[in-house]
Amino acid sequence: MDKLSPAQRSKCMKAIKYKDSLIEVTLRKSLWNQGYRYRKNYSKLPGKPDIALTKYKIAIFCDSEFWHGYDWETRKTDIKSNQLFWINKIERNIERDKEVNSELEKFGWKVIRFWGRDIKKELNECLTKIAKIVEEVSNGEKNNQILRY
Questions:
Q1: Burial track 63-100 (b if 16+ CB lie within 10 A, e otherwise)
Q2: How confident is the model at residue 132 (pLDDT cuts 50, 70, 90)?
Q3: Burial of residue 121, with CB atoms counted within 10 A of its CB: 0-12 exposed, 13-18 middle, 19 or more buried
Q4: Residue 12 CB: number of other CB atoms within 10 A?
Q5: Cα separation of 114 and 65, whole Å?
Q6: CA-closest candidate to residue 105, choices 142, 145, 141, 140
Q7: What is the pLDDT of residues 17-42, one digit of tens each?
Q8: Mind listing the domains of the chain with CATH numbers?
Q9: How far is CA 24 from the centre of its chain?
Q10: Which residues pair with 110 in a beta bridge?
Q11: pTM, to two decimals
């Protein structure tokens, strides 16, 4: 049973942003300052990557822990209200992420997924990982794999 009324729940859900979140903006600004040029929420690709380095064919996703199921098997028991809905929704999000990764790989794109907590706490490491992948792509190394940090 939901603790909020339908009107209250609707207001809360409408306030959730699906693009230009704090973690996305933080990573984008840092990439821009390092000289990387990108497309944001690139609609020409499956899944609309949060950041697309089109020159290098790198798609970057900034995944929040709740919506994308960080440590899902242990955390799904934390959901107390409307469990069936939320568990189904988040598990579908996890499955959709895998489908998007697969589609992007088929098109020859490298996929990098960062958890929001890593962007907040270890931004420099995230930037270093992106720079490493850019260097690999620039040198022509073929290693299509999904990179989850």
A1: bbeeebbbeeeeeeeeeeeeeeeeeeebeeeeeebeeb
A2: very high
A3: exposed
A4: 10
A5: 10
A6: 145
A7: 667 889 999 999 999 999 999 999 99
A8: 17-148 (3.40.960.10)
A9: 9
A10: 58
A11: 0.85
